[in-house]
Amino acid sequence: MASVSPARRALAHAPWSAAAWRDTAFVASGVPLQVAAWAILTVPWMVWVPTRVTPVLVLTSASAVLVLLALRPLTSWQRERCWAMLGLDVPRMPAFDDGRPWDALRDLRSPELWRVLRYHLVVGPLIALGGIAVIAAWAAGLACAASATFVWALPPSSALNSKPAAVLTGAGVLLVIAAPWAAAAVRRGDARAAAALLGPDRARELERRVEDLAEKRASVVDAADLERRRIERDLHDGAQQRLVSLALNLGLARETLTGVPDAAMRVIVEAHEEAKEALAELRGLIRGLHPAVLEDRGLDAALSGVAARVPLPVRLRVEVEPRASSTVEAVAYFVVSEALTNVVRHARASAVDIVVTRRGDVLHVVVTDDGRGGADPAGGTGLTGLARRVLSVDGAFRITSPAGGPTTVTVELPCAL
Question: Where is the Histidine kinase/HSP90-like ATPase domain (predicted)?
Answer without folding.
Answer: 327-417
